[in-house]
Each structure stands twice: as structure tokens, then as C-alpha cells.
Specification:
Number of domains of chain A: 1
Order of helices and strands of chain A: EEEEHEHHEHHEHEHEH
Strand order of the largest sheet of chain A: 1-2-3-5-4-6-7-8-9
Oligomer: homodimer
Helix content of chain A: 25-40%
Largest sheet of chain A: 9 strands, mixed
Shape of chain A: globular
CATH class of chain A: Alpha Beta
Largest interface: A-B, 14 and 14 residues
CATH topology of chain A: Rossmann fold
Structural class of chain A: alpha/beta
Number of strands of chain A: 9
Number of helices of chain A: 8
Amino acid sequence: MQWRGEASTNNGVVEREFRLEVAGRTVPAVVWTPEGSTGPRPLVLLGHGAATHKKTDYIAALGSRLVRHHGFAAAAIDATGHGDRLPDGGKDRERIWAERIASRSNGEFKDFTDDMVADWKATLDAVQTLPEVGDSLPVGYWGLSMGTSLGLPFVAAESRIAVAVFGLMGFATGPSDNPWMERGRIRLGGDAPKITVPVLFIQQWDDELVSRENGLNLFNAIASKDKRLHINPGAHAAVPVEEFDHSEALFVKHLGVVKL
Amino acid sequence: MQWRGEASTNNGVVEREFRLEVAGRTVPAVVWTPEGSTGPRPLVLLGHGAATHKKTDYIAALGSRLVRHHGFAAAAIDATGHGDRLPDGGKDRERIWAERIASRSNGEFKDFTDDMVADWKATLDAVQTLPEVGDSLPVGYWGLSMGTSLGLPFVAAESRIAVAVFGLMGFATGPSDNPWMERGRIRLGGDAPKITVPVLFIQQWDDELVSRENGLNLFNAIASKDKRLHINPGAHAAVPVEEFDHSEALFVKHLGVVKL
């Protein structure tokens, strides 16, 4: 766990970046904690969507509010092929997106889910060594879209996660020539029945990337008895702010509240 | 507006029953207001489900919490063929339910939606004459199951309603020999596109009375741009308590908060 640069403090929230070495990969990470905090506290891991990065607007905002409102810790990492794993820091979103789309048909598709599961586990190990976080309190996971496609297999494999928010992702039940669709069918269809923690699943009813049916397939496949599906009108990226409120409330319900 | 019996006060909530005469029908009603309240306040109308009545557990509880938590007023009426509209006060739920089921096939089905729209309008008129309610602040509607099948047409016809919670109801898009299904297709399918206020729609994913598809049909047909669908696992009557929290939050957002 190598710290990078100086810690910055904003509105009571301390932000620190670090790097981890995991099986030859360098994983860029960030952790948010309350200013002056010492004791153990619940932690929420935040998985960003495709073509963004660990400190993109909604991830940084959610991390910050979990710290400020509830005294939690929050952490995020750049996914494989994103953010500081790229030479330009992942700033060229159009290029990342175009390469992802192209890889569906040009034979360059590579499933990096197993790498990401290992990277998330190493990140959780590392953050729990911080005295102001510790390993005595439960952990939550939040990730939509690619944050679900990569995060759901992590949650399925990780017993430390006690509650999760997923969404903007799905799978078709039949085979496809599209390697992304096949990966979803096999990986998400296989891992969703292993998810048993309380789940909020968020779906956009007019999602241009994930069909209604495929989203419902994934919600249905999650084995948790305590799960709820919130559907809002609008496009993939138009998740309303109230779902961030609902996410926050679910984490508080299952992770507790820290005395600030 | 004829008051019935004495007002009762419980935990700061005043409960008063009254009767209205509407087109030859006697409408039994109840209103809940904060103890000692004087000024105008938002009002929420509560529509009960089939075979229950205006003071059934979840209706009385929701009315009470809207008064206690936010200083609102709340009111409910017995639907046609329910509660104090029946000689026994509607206590024989099994009989009411059995007669409703039988009427699907024995030719005794009668659509009393238009009566109920008129009864609700008269109730709203009456409650707004109370000085502690008034007609200067917005009004909400909450009703699931039969509370939607009868309440949605009322909200479609009533411009004073500013926000609504519906659910546990739907319609098939194709014709049916079942008069209840036909009534839903024509009435709900016709009125849902007239609903434009913010809506929370609550659906049970394993509903034994309303299919997933029919529920989604109704959600889709509602014209409101500001609408959200919350789906929970479980049977028709197993709506989790968190949806009452979400209902309350939506009313507060759109009706405001009264200084208590």
C-alpha cells in the first residue's frame, strides 16, 4: 500500500490515493475517511462505470456523503483499462468507449473480471489495515453498469460484503455471438445466484444499453431474499438522485451508524 | 358532513368519523388531524384495498404517521360494498372477498368506479372546508390494489391531487371474458395516460393476483414524467414497510412540511 501525493481534506472528508501491486498489476485506489477519525468504521467500496474512473463525479460525491453523513469510510479503484491504469489518466473517455465497443467484434475482447475480483479483494485487505477503518465492522459494495458487471462477481466471491447496490446491467438467457453478451450470460448468470446479501437493484426503464428484459433477468437471478428493484424512466446515465439517497439509507440500515 | 360519535385523540392524532350524502349514497369517512391544529395543511387521501375498510391497520397507521411526522391531515372512506356501507361494518372479510370473486362469473359484476370518483370528490370538498385543513395547500393520494383500481380514475379526474402512490394493480392489453379484467383494461388503460403528477408505483414480484406483465403495463401507461417503480419480492399483501417510508418521503417532497 503505497501512498501517492498528499492527503487532501474537503468539508471534513480526507481523501488519500494509494497504489497496490496485485499479481504484477498496479491498482490505483483512493480512500475517503472522516477528518480526525481513529476508531473502526463501516466501509463502502464504490465501483465506477465504463469509460469513467475512481474519482468520477458520482463516485467521489457518494464517497464524500457516506463519510460526512454517517462517518463511514469509502474506497474506489480504477478498473482495468481505466483511469490511472492508462497513460493519460483515462481522460479520453471517447477513445476508451470506442475501443470497448470495437472489441465486441474485432476479437480483442478480454474478460478481466477475475483480475478485478482479485484487485478488489486486495484493496479491501489493504483498507482494512488502516486503524481508522479496521476489519471489525461490515462492508458494503455499490456499483452500477460496469460497476455491477465487475462488482457482482466480486461480491459473490467475498464474504466480507454485507450489503450491495447493483444495477444498469443484465444478461440475456440465450447464447449470443457478441462476446460481451456471452460473458454476461455466463458470468453474471452464474454469479447472481451466489448473492445472498440485501440488495438494491437500480434499473432505467429506457436504458439504451441494457434491455428491460435483460435487466429483469439479472434482478431475478440474484438469490437474496431481501432485495428490491427500483425502476425509473430515462436513459442509462439518467439515474435520479433519489436512488443515491436510497443507496445511502440501505447502507445505514445494514452497516450501522458511526457516532460522529 | 355529519360528525359521528366523539373525536378520539391518540399520541397527538385526532381521529373523527363523519358521513356524507352523495347522490343518495351515504359515504362513511374518517379524518385524522394534529391535536390542537388550526392553520391550513396538506392533506393525503388514503384508499383501502378490497375486503378491508377505511380504518384497517395499514390505512390507520399511515394516516397517523402522516399527522405525527409531518403535521399533515389524512382522510379515508369506505369503498362501495365495504366497511360501514355494510350492515355488519364490513367485518366479514371472507364473505366480501367470496362475493367479489363470484361476481366475476355470475353476472353480478358492477363497476362502481364512477360512484367512487364522485364520493372521493365530495370527501375532498368536505375535508377542505375544515379550518385546520383548508383548500390552499396541495393534496396527495395513496392507494394500493383496489385503492389503485378505484383511486387512479379519481386522480385522473381530480386536478387538486398533486402526487400519488399506486400499485398492486395492472391490466392486460388484450380483451378478456372476465369482467374485472375488461374493466381494468378499459378503465385503467384509459385513465392512466391522464395521470401526470409525480407517482410512486409499488409492485410485488410474486403477486398471486396481478401478473408481472399486467403490473408493468399499468406503470408504463401512466403519463407522468416523474414516476418510479419499486418492485419487491413476495405475495400481494407482503409490501415491505420501507415502501411506506418511501411513500411518506414522496408526500413530504411534493406537499411540503408543516411547522409543528
